# Entry
Amino acid sequence: MRSKTFWQAYARNKAARFGLVIMILVVVLGLFAGVLFPASPWDMVNAPFLPPLSDGALLGTDTLGRDIAAGIAYGARVSLLIGMTSTAVAVVVGVTLGALAGFFGGWVDDALMRFTELFQTIPNFVLTVVLVAIFTPSQRSIISAIAIVSWPPLARLARAEFMSLRSREFVQAAMTTGQSNMAIIFREILPNSLSPLIVSASLMVATAVLLESSLSFLGLGDPNAMSWGYMIGSARTVIRQAWWMSFFPGLAILLTVLALNLIGEGLNDALNPRLSRQGKA
Amino acid sequence: MAAISVAEPPPPLLDVRGLSIALPDGADRPFAVDNLSFTLNPDEILCVVGESGSGKSMTAHAVMGLLPPSVRLAAGGLFFRDTNVLTQPEAKRRELRGGRIAMIFQEPMTALNPLMRVGEQVEESLRAHTPLDRAGRRARVQELFAQVGLPNPAELVRSYPFRLSGGQRQRVMIALALACEPDLLIADEPTTALDVTTQKQILDLIRRIQAERHMGVMFITHDFGVVAEIAHRVAVMQNGKMVEIGTAAEVLNRPRHPYTRQLIAAVPHTMGQRAAFARVGEPLLRAEGINKIFRVGGGLFRKAKEVVAGHEIALTIHAGETVGLVGESGSGKSTLGRSIVGLMKPDNGHIFFRGTDLMTLAPRDFRPFRREIQMVFQDPYASLNPRRTVGDIIAQGPVAFGESPSVARAKAEELLGLVGLDGNAAGRYPHEFSGGQRQRISIARALAMGPSLLIADEPVSALDVSVQAQVLGLLDDIRRRFNLSMLFITHDLRIASRVCDTIAVMRRGVIVETGPADRVFGDPRHAYTRALLDAIPGRGWHVPAELAQCPAELAQ
# Structure
């Protein structure tokens, strides 16, 4: 896939462009949170219960007088950091195990897939909660927990791709020309199986963002970092008096997850030209 | 006064007038079908011949009203018995389709619904187009199945498609097409996916049914052997244009258009004209007692079905010899080829290569032999990694054996020139090349290893006939130049007769006959060899002498 044609194919999808723009905005917001809001988001900077558009608090303040806009900006950091890192870990683990299972087959495949199924039988969220609770909430434990529940679908996908590509003639040709297994895995098979993996990884970031928010909502977030889930969780008792305290963080989650899904779909269309719907402007 | 009666020719069944079908912007040519005019009379078989991309299938699909949404009818009319099919409302066209005009497809497996019993699929068409009641339809289906020669129709109607063989499925498709007694039958490469003996049966069936019912048949094919077998008239298409149309005898024996002449000259025709091969010394490769059984579908509680792909196979290949391994699909010929290059392990047996038994070697000890034994694969679209440049693909083997990348790369460019491609092809990606060019790249990749034995597994079966001739010529040329031995695996006896010194005929995992090509083709001893030879389409027709002598490229 040449990069120019890739971008042309991606840009043809309006929704995907929209998703990319939102995502860039969220990233910029997270990166420049310290510039936009020099004060800590935990500081009480104003009177509590200020509605949106008040003086000095664009999106209002919470029950303790903390600025909600600042919370959202710093929360973007946490959400993106945890979403991306946990997905990266999940991709490395999942693709490695799936690739080994799919390439070698036989007992390697059996052993790795039974191991994978072990994780798939436990509901994702329950397992995350248990893991975070055991290892005490911190950024590292949250990332590990989300990664541990996220890799099995990637492993299965990588395995399926490797299994089908392994029997393709160009891979067999590489074997007959004496390539080592590692060279075949990395140079012949992996580049050809990247498209579906990239797509599902981009969708997985969205799931990870949601998982992190859910954990924070339950009070299992990193106690030192302001996050969207924590903001909603702490505002839920006053939702009837002060809607804005849970509305804006909720909107942030919605837009981020939506953007990631649109990007994922756009990547899917751009990377798999045969599957993309024809005649779509 | 006697009236002078002039025999009025019957009005044509199908009259195509100036038909043009536009391709979407950015395609390699503006029109898939360009100003096409021809007629098809009742009670005749018109063969439409052309290479892939010539627009022959597009024409058939236009008649059926099954054009893909990306193309557009630009001009012209399609008259079926004086009604212009193209201007009819969809409801009327649906009535025509399946009722008056029926179609058979190339791939009988994908054309049948896998989840429906075959009898029901035929009944469905009867329900849509005839007033028959349930019992009447049932009876009609059985009658049809009997007519197309399906064994035991009463039981077979209750089978699902996957239970049937390829030939049986195609018979079901024909029964389906015939269900409503159509006047016009369109057959789009109906025998291309079938084995040669099955192909003969299906061709016989189509010819018989056409004669019985006096139907018009539009038969699309790329194979001049099939044309010679079945056609009354022939139309030749090239790049969406019809270049020649005439009676079968005219076109086959006195082709006028240069393109037709080129196609006919490319038809593999030499039957046993090679100089006899003298085997000297020890064989390069000697396989003995090879057995291989595949177990399919077994599970924890089910017994697996056993398929014999090899039973006590013995084969020798001498230096410089080309051995043709011939047989129908599933006969185990690819299994043997793959076992020799080490992609597959037989259950037992010995493969001696220069005296070393490859079967007993550990993977590490097998590695040096990789250089000696190379393979050219069947599908040129699947055998090259789409994400690597051609130069990389060719150089990867020597580099894996320790050659420096720059030397390997220079050698790759040299080899590309040798197989008839530009040196600058090395920097490009496989998708920029045509099927024939890709197969040349594949050959260059094998040659880069400096092999002494080349396994060619159906190397030309995915190519058009004129390209086929060129690639076969190339293989023959490099074989002579490098004194290569070759195991040439093919299902096409005409091709085998052209390039092979020795022929081994395989059937259900057993080599039933081995011998010099001349002897096997001239005096076949095994009944199966005779059946295979007898099934070659167009045996009664010979390529005109003036074209048989010159190579395809010069025929124009």
Chain A touches chain B through 19 residues (CB under 8 Å). Residues 103 and 208 of chain A are 28 Å apart (CA to CA). Residues 275-281 of chain A have pLDDT under 50 and may be disordered. The first helix of chain A runs from residue 3 to 11.
